From TrEMBL:
Gene Ontology cellular-component terms listed: cytoplasm
Descriptive protein name: BLNK protein
GO biological process: cell surface receptor protein tyrosine kinase signaling pathway; intracellular signal transduction
PANTHER family per record: B-CELL LINKER PROTEIN, SH2 DOMAIN CONTAINING PROTEIN
Keywords for the protein's UniProt record, in alphabetical order: SH2 domain
Gene: Blnk
Pfam short name (any one): SH2
SMART domains xrefs: SH2
Domain SH2, chain residue ranges per copy: 9-116
Origin species: Daphoenositta chrysoptera
Amino acid sequence: DAGVHSKAWYAATCDRKMAEDALYQSNKDGSFLIRKSSGQDSRQPYTLVVFYNRRVYNIPIRFIESTRQYALGREKSGEERFDSVAEIVENHQRTSLVLIDSQNNTKDSTKLQHIVRVS
């Protein structure tokens, strides 16, 4: 268990479009939720969805089998690893999360500030 099921920020029944729509409606930088990833892949079970600067970012959350930990985005050397998805959220409520826009090749950063609930 990734520690997500009882959390306000976990949108269990939410797909990508619903998540993006909910974040655009919130229209607040740092709004976020976590949803199940679209592809049923055990190595990438969840997606962190973040709103910043009028854009929605879908950041994969990877499960690292060898250490039974979680990490964000593509695998990279020296990446931060966490024992649960809840730890990722708690960490990035305190420290900024880097948002990479692959289309424009720009970087931004924001903290996870506003939990968005999907009804």
